[in-house]
Amino acid sequence: MRKCKGFRNFKERGEWVELQFMARALRKRFRVSKPWGDSSAYDVGVEHGRRFLRVQVKSTSYRLANGYLCGFRPNQRRKRYARRKVDFFAAYIVPEDVWYILPASVVLKTKSSDLMLCPVQPMRRNCYRYEAYREAWKLLRSGKNQSTVLSS
Q1: Pairwise CA distance, residues 117 & 6, whole Å
Q2: Is residue 72 a part of any domain in this protein?
Q3: What is the domain count for the chain?
Q4: 3-state percent breakdown (helix, strand, coil) of the chain, nearest 5
Q5: Is residue 144 part of a domain?
Q6: How far is the C-alpha of 64 from the C-alpha of 42, rounded, in Å?
Q7: What does each C-alpha distance from 71 to 22, 58, 61, 107 come to in angstroms?
Q8: What is the CATH number of the domain that holds 94?
Q9: What is the residue range of 91's domain?
Q10: Is residue 143 part of a domain?
């Protein structure tokens, strides 16, 4: 696995990715807020209308075959995130400059804490499991935390 190219460590890259998420969300006309410190279960708050959503931001540059493997664990000590504390995950594929906006219900129902995201292939929503969530910023607008949103 490649080290954090261009960064001193993964924490520094994570902070940069959070800034990238907030900048992109602002361009998409969301309001964003950042909790103070590292003790919150989420990284960024996103407001749209009267909704406030808690977003956990992840990133990867680990290429594996047709995609990138992205980990969705809080850290080595805690095993999983809790649905009552996170509404969405935003996963950034650093080399491809691509975002995945995934409802927490989708991420947390998987047995593994690692998901394969495939932005290197042409987008085929029915072929790769998580491609329907590529650049799915509309999910934050609707605030719905279910996978059924994408069928509409």
Answers
A1: 22
A2: yes
A3: 1
A4: 25, 30, 45
A5: yes
A6: 27
A7: 20, 8, 11, 10
A8: 3.40.1350.10
A9: 10-151
A10: yes
User: Which residue reads 């990133």 in tokens?
Assistant: 59
Residue of 90, 92, 100 whose CA lies nearest to 59:
92
51 CB-near residues (< 8 Å, 6+ apart): 143
**Amino acid type, 49:** G
Q: Is residue 21 part of a domain?
A: yes
The reported pTM is 0.85
CA-atom Rg of the chain in angstroms: 15
- Closest by CA position to 1, among listed 93, 64, 58: 64
- Residues 6 or more apart in contact with residue 58 via CB below 8 angstroms: 17, 70, 71, 72, 89, 90, 91, 92
Please give the backbone phi and psi of residue 150, each rounded to the nearest 5 degrees, phi first.
-75, -15
DSSP 101: E
Structure tokens at 55: 């977003």
**What's the Cα-to-Cα distance from 151 to each of 29, 120, 121, 141, rounded to whole Å?**
24, 23, 21, 16
Alpha-carbon span 53 to 143, nearest angstrom: 7
pLDDT means per 10 residues in the chain (152 residues)? 68 92 96 90 92 95 90 76 92 95 93 86 68 94 57 38
Q: How far apart are CA 139 and CA 31, in angstroms?
A: 15
- What span, in angstroms and rounded, lies between the C-alpha atoms of 79 and 142? 29
